[in-house]
Amino acid sequence: MKAIRCALLLLECCFLCSGASRSDVSKPDPEAAGMGAQRVAAIPIRMKEYVDAHKAAGMVTILARHGEVAEFDAVGYQDLESQKPMSKDSMFRIASLTKPITCAGIMVLVDEGRISVIDPVEKFLPEYKGIKLNACVGRSGYGCVGIEPDRPIDIEDLMTHTSGLGNATAHGTEPSTLADLAALGAKTELLFNPGTKWNYSNTGYNVLGRIIEVVSKQSYDEFLREHIFGPLGMKDTYFFVPDAKAPRIATLYTQTENGLERAKSQWGTQHGPKIPMPAGGIVSTAEDIFRFNMMMRNKGELNGHRVLSSAAVTLMTTSHTGDMKAGWSPGVGHGYGYEVVRDAEGMFRYNSIGSFVKGGAYRTYEWVDPEKDLVGVFMMQLTNGGGDTADEINSFMEMSAAAIEK
To answer: What are the φ/ψ torsions at residue 71 (nearest 5 degrees)?
Structure first.
């Protein structure tokens, strides 16, 4: 009897482990995910209505629950002008969905004991030593010289957007390396004392990428390939898309009075800027970003590959911003890269408290709801309108939660 109990326990453990690490999108199965097939099937129909109303060219959605893929659909067009259909493997400029990946890179180094999240930035980037606080923010007057901040910026400040850094721009020669780009912030004054307020700072994330380079002695993009993209099987994730895959990049549009118009910039290929941007430079597919978020849902592991420790994922997906207004949606605080739903106000899309979410500038979105065990990825390409609370994103998230049956 003891041998039988041990065998049953081993079988149960194997089942749970396999369920926790699945990321196969080839055969969506709503029933296996404990979701209603009819309600799940209504999701792409609703998305197509946005396309038919000329609010979007097209989109790709993926939804999973309990580790089982319930829905994976592409609707509309990858390119309106040529009427090229949107495909499940279409590639998207994910913009700020890059940020949680950058933070994951930092946490790889924390797991290795090579850095701490409370390390001051100046420990790795000496140009940040002695950065001043702007003493005249919000008022005018003479003699408003920069003053010493209460403490130096640390790595956690950068990840939670509480560093006091603004969004620095070049004056004169444009940066040609990530080191140049990250150094721009050191030439500015802080907007507030580190850790006291929230201000979304792309510059801060570029600094994080440079810290990865300094500590690892690898280029930022090579480090991510080795430690994140490769182990997770993110085969279509790049900062500079190879020419052979460039035809898969979805066209970026702008909503105008005359409808959707092709945006002037269509960056993402090897012919664009050559700096891999930690704040928002990745081009990827819905499936690859789903893999990353499944790893986060699984506390750092996917398909037998451990990318992060469970402790690292917990720290990343905890709000560190207290009662500050710290995000683009109601009711959220900020973790490392992700926003975290912290109270009932953030449940407006049926999100549970503790859900961690992230949106990108071109209406890309990802979320993990640990309480409901939901993982969702939404991809489209539009430069304006709605942001993280766009109608299309709201609809997808609401319909996803509403489809849960058991």
So the answer is: -155, 140
Neighbours of 374 (CB within 10 A): 26
Instruction: Classify residue 122 by burial, with Cβ atoms within 10 Å: 0-12, 13-18, 19+.
Output: middle
- pLDDT for 6 equals 44
CA atoms of 229 and 171, how far apart (whole Å): 34
* Nearest-5° Cα angle at 248, 244 to 250: 145
Cβ pair 219, 276 in contact under 8 A: yes
Render pLDDT for 103-128 as a digit per residue (tens, 0 to 9).
Answer: 999 999 999 999 999 999 999 999 99
Q: What 3-state class would DSSP assign to 241?
A: strand
- Which CATH code fits 105-220? 3.40.710.10
Each domain of the chain, given as residue ranges in start order, spans 105-220
- What's the maximum distance between 2 C-alpha atoms anywhere in the chain? 85
- DSSP codes of every residue in 212-223: HHHHHSS-HHHH
CB count in 10 Å sphere of residue 37: 16
DSSP 160: H
Question: Do the Cβ atoms of 289 and 366 come closer than 8 Å?
Answer: yes
Distance between CA atoms of residues 285 and 250, nearest Å? 10
Classified as helix, coil or strand, 147 is strand
Identity of residue 346: G
CA distances from 62 to 101, 224, 338, 351 (A): 19, 23, 19, 16
- Read off the pLDDT of residues 124-134 as tens digits, 9 standing for 90 and up: 999 999 999 99
pTM of the model: 0.92
Query: What gap in Å lies between CA 374 and CA 68, rounded to an integer?
Result: 10
What one-character-per-residue DSSP string does 244-297 give? TTGGGBPPPEEEETTEEEE-S----BTTS--S--TTT--EEEHHHHHHHHHHHH
